[in-house]
Write a structure and sequence with these properties.
With 160 residues, the chain is mainly α. The chain has helices at residues 2-18, 28-35, 40-61, 63-70, 72-90, 104-108, 111-123, and strands at 129-133, 138-139, 145-146, 151-155. The protein has a two-stranded antiparallel ribbon with strand order 1-4. Strands 2-3 form a two-stranded antiparallel ribbon. A hairpin with a 5-residue loop joins β2 and β3 (145-146). α1 packs across α3. The model has no long low-confidence stretch (mean pLDDT 87).
């Protein structure tokens, strides 16, 4: 796995350095690589995290689309907000709206969309419970002793 990730990172670095690729990557790994000079080891950890942790959590997060179909008023507000931002940033010619992915500044203006996504994740969290392995004796803030070698599982309060 490390060899594969190393190959991907090296190839991506070469593409970014040469800028010859007419369709540059705009994925999360490329964004990490463009933003700062992270070590290859750090980038491998990031990429491995995408592969291992992203599968189930991404699938659950997609429940957002189902929720939107159940609430047409919210869907209408989301679409109106996106159109409003695109008109402001890209002009009234709708044929140009899909030429480039949304920029960070544009996404920052999508307040209602962010609220709808956050509410979906509150109701249907990607990781509704998590477990941790205790490596050293510890004490919870309420005074409960937690011995080394035990497991602690906690649930996210869904509020449904």
């Amino acid at each position: 796995m490390h060899g594969y990730l190393s190959d991907v990172i090296n190839a991506r670095k070469q593409e970014l350095l040469s800028q010859q690729n007419r369709n540059p990557h705009d994925d999360l790994l490329s964004r990490f690589m463009k933003k700062e000079s992270y070590s290859d080891e750090f980038l491998q950890h990031v990429a491995l995290n995408f592969i291992l942790a992203g599968r189930d959590t991404s699938a659950v997060a997609l429940s957002w689309f189902w929720l939107v179909t159940q609430h047409p008023t919210a869907e209408d507000k989301i679409l109106r907000e996106i159109c409003s931002v695109l008109m402001e940033t890209r002009g009234v010619d709708k044929s140009t709206w899909l030429d480039e992915p949304l920029g960070f500044e544009e996404v920052d203006q999508l307040i209602y969309l962010k609220a709808a996504l956050s509410e979906t994740l509150r109701l249907y969290p990607s990781v509704p419970q998590d477990s941790k392995h205790v490596v050293a004796d510890d004490v919870f803030p309420d005074g409960t002793f937690v011995p080394a070698g035990s497991s602690v599982t906690y649930e996210v309060n869904l509020g449904r």
